[in-house]
């Protein structure tokens, strides 16, 4: 019996429209452009507003789902917008994801710094453990043996925490940055008015 590999990517991509040049289209429909943004900063210009959490989550999931395929984002608004709505929407999307990239890079720096501090602390504690080992008598008391073992275990726990913090946070942040870059650089197409 031959096993045929399943091409999930093509079946996933079939769910999306595509442009004549082959790019996948991520469609977003809303009544009006204001619905794309958080409502707590209504008086702020588009370029300063945060995109709605639901929209960002949807776009991030679409980018994850389509993989490395090139794409465009098409916004369909039911209400006719002002003449520069396409330009403003495109700029707002680009600005928002540029901001998210900057914020993630700052978070990576903090993660690296905290991991380095944990490594430094772990090495110091491990050094104390090694120093204690050389000063233990051949047949140490139970308290001294437990103290030595406890310090050694603490050192390895701190070093493991440094490693785990760096690896897990760094890789997930790098993935988010890659998706944010793709969203920032995507062409934005705006269609307004009832069909």
TrEMBL record:
Has keyword Transmembrane helix? yes
Q: What is this protein called?
A: Uncharacterized protein
Task: Please name the source species.
Answer: Prosthecochloris aestuarii
At the highest ranks, the source species' classification is: Bacteria, Pseudomonadati, Chlorobiota, Chlorobiia, Chlorobiales
| Keywords for the protein's UniProt record, in alphabetical order | Membrane, Transmembrane, Transmembrane helix
Transmembrane stretches in the record are: 112-133, 153-172
Origin superkingdom: Bacteria
């Amino acid at each position: 019996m031959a096993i045929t590999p399943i091409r999930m990517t093509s079946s996933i991509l079939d769910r999306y429209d595509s442009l004549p040049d082959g790019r996948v289209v991520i469609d977003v429909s809303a009544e009006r452009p204001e619905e794309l943004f958080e409502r707590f900063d209504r008086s702020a210009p588009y370029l300063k507003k945060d995109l709605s959490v639901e929209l960002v989550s949807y776009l991030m999931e679409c980018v994850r789902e389509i993989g490395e395929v090139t794409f465009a984002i098409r916004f369909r608004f039911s209400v006719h917008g002002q003449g520069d709505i396409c330009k403003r929407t495109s700029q707002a999307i680009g600005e928002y994801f540029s901001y998210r990239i900057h914020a993630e890079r700052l978070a990576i720096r903090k993660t690296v710094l905290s991991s380095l501090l944990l490594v430094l602390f772990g090495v110091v504690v491990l050094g104390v453990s090694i120093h204690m080992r050389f000063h233990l008598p051949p047949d140490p008391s139970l308290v001294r043996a437990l103290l030595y073992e406890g310090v050694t275990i603490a050192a390895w726990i701190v070093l493991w925490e440094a490693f785990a913090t760096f690896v897990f946070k760094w890789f997930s942040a790098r993935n988010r940055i890659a998706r944010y870059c793709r969203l920032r650089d995507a062409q934005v197409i705006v269609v307004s008015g009832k069909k």
